[in-house]
Amino acid sequence: MRDRTLGGRLAAGLLGTLVGALAQPCVVSSPQSLGFAHSEGPTNYNVRLRPLGQLRALLVLVDFPDAPADESAEAVWAQIVPGVRQWFSEVSYGRMDLWATTTPKWYRLPRRSQDYGIARGLSFDQHRRFFSDAIAAADPDVDFSAYQIVYLVASRESAIRFSPGFEANPGAGIRADGVEVRHGMTLGTDIRASTNVLIHETGHLFGLPDLYDTSALSTSSTHRFAGVWDPMSWFETLSDFTAWHKWKLGWLDTSQIRCLGQGQVEENLTPVSIPGGLKAIVAQVSESRAVVVESRNPSGRDSAFCDSGILIYMVDAAAPDGAGPLRVRPSNISSDLEKTRRCGPLFDAPWDARRDKNSRFIDAETGVSVEVLGTFRVRVINPVAPPPVLAGAASVAFTVDAGATQSQQYSLTSGATSVAYTAVTAEPWLAVEPAQATTPATLTLTARTAGLAPGTYRGILRVTAAAASNSPLTVAVELTVRVPPPPPVTPSLATVVNAASFQPGLVAPGELVTLFGSALGPGTLTGLRLAGGRVDTTLADTRVWFDGVAAPLLYVSDRQTSAIVPFSVAGRPRTEVAVEFRGGRSNPLSLAVAAAAPALFTADSSGRGQGAILNQDGLLNGATQAAARGSVVVLYATGAGQMSPSGPDGAITGAELARVLGEVQVTIGGQRAEVLYAGAAPGLVAGVVQINAQIPPDIDTGDAVPVRLTVSGVASPAGVTLVVR
Question: Phi/psi of residue 221, each to 5°?
Fold first, then answer.
């Protein structure tokens, strides 16, 4: 049976959760004494969650003998999930999708709610006991291996009043369904007043530190470090994340952060709340500290701000959680208590070129200076030459068949200054070459499994350099020795359909398609990954070929796999498609090629009914959120064919927006709508197109107004609708 719900989840993930490797344009290091604590330094994603792509979360509903539940699961989900998911999607520029579902019923725990001690000063052991009881209660009905985050929702009459995060180091979590539950949060009664605390605590799961003063006794001093400028500091009104945190989380490209060593630079900055553009200049002043310059204005998730301009702050990766790891350098600190109460602490911190604002900043300690030249233009001068810092991946992982040998390249750098290094390891199964050389260097790490039983082995590679300020650099190495994979299988390909309409027919260059058959991929669904900034063409030993060209893969599974038709099929009358899985190749299917084969994405991925359409205010169109006549709506489609300029298969759309090459028309309610934009969808993969169209002012309103897209004379399938009132 075709799983249209599955296709819908993956289509939704495609539209907002394309992942990329975390870039490192600037490096500030945390001392090893901080261990796995939250910090402003590089995040160890062997321990933390990487917030890229789709993160699957489960709300486990729990009540107690003293506080039985009186809410439906649907009501709890609706109160918590949609707003939080939308918030993360917006602030990550679509790079993260916090997908969450809930248990359909409440699970009664064995202890009274007050007996679990979920209060200020909660210990890890107390919290783990609570999680353990909840997981044990739900485990008979829940497959915990399907989720990366577990949120425990306490009944609203319980004694659990606040919402702490739950984080366990590897080996200290709770085992269930073959996995270890290590990332989660308890949602107390305060979550019903505001979900902002959920966003703050989820930020900790991603490795972000507390920016408020955890030792302060009053509200005014608590938020003296970062004020309203990041949710890890102030979450009453919940601003956007700082550019530094967005970079740490992997939501900014390398090109969007300008790293400044000794010297000066003059640049235009794009506000953090607006996608695209240069987001920050980072002037590194020591191994662990940097001055960061970014632009903030009252737009997007920063719309509640009372001031705008250039925000300047110091990040210190050596500062512990809650001790000022990020400190704003304010241009002014208002004495207006009423305005501070309304706008939040340090609300007037930005620097600006306006006459009533300060436009020039000089850091007394480091000498770094910032001059605001215009609304978004700044000149930054860094007189400090940072010391050499060894930089390389914090961890390396091998997965090798028993008896085999595998090598990987490891890049070691030290900034602009070359240093001599020595690399050693005590693990007999690990070798490194060259063990002694100078940076920059590419080391070859080789794992040999001869004589090792299947299982997981862990070791350390230690790199020392006398001239580097952070020597030694320790690299965690993990070797998984596995039983050799099973012999090749023979996939069987039955049909190919448009991924939006689920209808077979002609295929077009760049079209998202879904393939049905058997042995088309692994038994467990595997989602997309990026390689070199593009959607990879190999996933879980699976490849899809069009005329011998490997197609980007969106997801793969046994009976249903989704790919993107390579743009190279353009101009051909037919294309031959085949699936390769674990060395076996399917029967080929010959498909007719057209210049365009458009189809609109729909809310339930059936290809019919309510479209996946955004209203002019950015909200999803639907029965409770109708579009007005004369307003602009945003449609998402695939199968539009060639784009101009053309780009590589699987590329993620950046600042340059390609336009649909063919003629584009949209009809709404049977009338021609004005098309304001038809081209690549920002932040999404090439092949997904966005069409902005204006609803005709005199059409009939209704809950199912038909909408159709025509490209190069080919119309999308009928049956897609939107709500107009």
Answer: -90, -20
- List domains and CATH numbers for the chain: 44-205 (no CATH), 219-382 (no CATH), 395-478 (2.60.40.10), 492-592 (2.60.40.10), 599-724 (no CATH)
Task: Give the chain's length.
Answer: 725
Distance CA 28, CA 566 (A): 40
From residue 613, give the alpha-carbon distance in Å to each of 285, 379, 632, 643, 693.
47, 42, 11, 22, 11
Q: Report which residue type is found at 42.
A: P
DSSP 341: H
Mean pLDDT (the chain) is 90
Distance CA 577, CA 556 (A): 15
- φ, ψ at 21 (rounded to 5°): -65, 145
Residue 2 has pLDDT above 80, yes or no: no
Q: What is the dihedral of CA 10, 12, 13, 16, to 10 degrees?
A: 160
Concatenating the DSSP letter of every residue in 397-454 gives: EEEEETT-EEEEEEEEBBTBS--EEEEEE--TTEEEE-SEEESSEEEEEEEE-TTPPS
Q: 503 and 4 in contact (C-beta within 8 Å)?
A: no
**19-33, 280-294, 406-420: least confident range:** 19-33
How do 280-284 and 289-296 pair as beta strands? antiparallel
Instruction: Report the distance separating Cα 252 and Cα 280, nearest Å.
Output: 10
Of 198 and 45, which is predicted with more confidence? Answer: 198
The answer on pLDDT for 480 being more than 80 is yes
Task: For strands 420-425 and 455-464, give the pairing.
Answer: antiparallel
The pLDDT score that the predictor gives to residue 35 is 47
The residue whose two tokens read 């990020």 is: 326
- In the prediction, which pLDDT does 7 show? 40
Q: Select from 120, 139, 122, 140 the least CA-distant residue to 130.
A: 122
On the question of pLDDT at 277 being above 60, the answer is yes
User: Residue type for 175, please?
Assistant: R
Residue (of 158, 377, 417, 102) closest to 284 by Cα position: 417
Contacts of 74 (CB under 8 A, 6+ apart): none
Pairing label, strands 473-482, 395-401: parallel
